[in-house]
Write a structure and sequence with these properties.
Helix content is about 10%, strand content about 65%. The longest helix has 16 residues. The chain is globular, with a radius of gyration of 15 Å. The N and C termini lie far apart (about 35 Å).
């Protein structure tokens, strides 16, 4: 229990220290869990880091995806994005390392909230080698500074 409290504290301090522009939850299939802490950090005008931390029975998962943002829908509030990056999962006796891709659509409201849907297929490389195409999710985030 102390390990998980320490991991939650480190995660919260990391999100706070990196000045997240958006912070919230991701609901959906995700590294053995159905809910993850979801954060977005700006990396330029048209790119960002989309990071998630999830906890499940005896384990923890971390994603850090580099997203490129596109606005082809003509309205400022709609964005679609595509990206990829590493993920790490560890638990009672396992260690997973791999790559995830992401494609999603989000809407930023006139008040400080963003709502999005995405798909994250993945390729696990270390402990086992396998591909999975699940990983559909709903993101609900608070937008700081708006």
């Amino acid at each position: 229990m102390k390990k998980y409290f320490l991991l939650v504290a480190i995660t919260a301090l990391t999100f706070t220290g990196l000045n997240a522009q958006e912070l919230g939850l991701r609901f959906g299939g995700y590294d053995g869990a159905n809910v993850a802490i979801d954060g977005v950090f700006s990396a330029g005008q048209f790119s960002r880091i989309h990071a998630d931390v999830s906890f499940w029975n005896g384990g923890m998962g971390i994603d850090a995806l580099w997203d490129f943002i596109y606005k082809p829908l003509g309205e400022e509030a709609f964005n679609w994005y595509v990206g990829a990056g590493p993920y790490l999962g560890f638990g009672n006796s396992n260690f997973d390392l791999g790559i995830k891709g992401e494609i999603g659509l989000e809407y930023r409201f006139n008040f400080p909230m963003a709502l999005g849907i995405d798909w994250r297929p993945g390729l696990e490389i270390v402990d086992n080698t396998k591909f999975w195409g699940g990983g559909f999710g709903l993101n609900v985030r608070y937008v700081f500074g708006e």
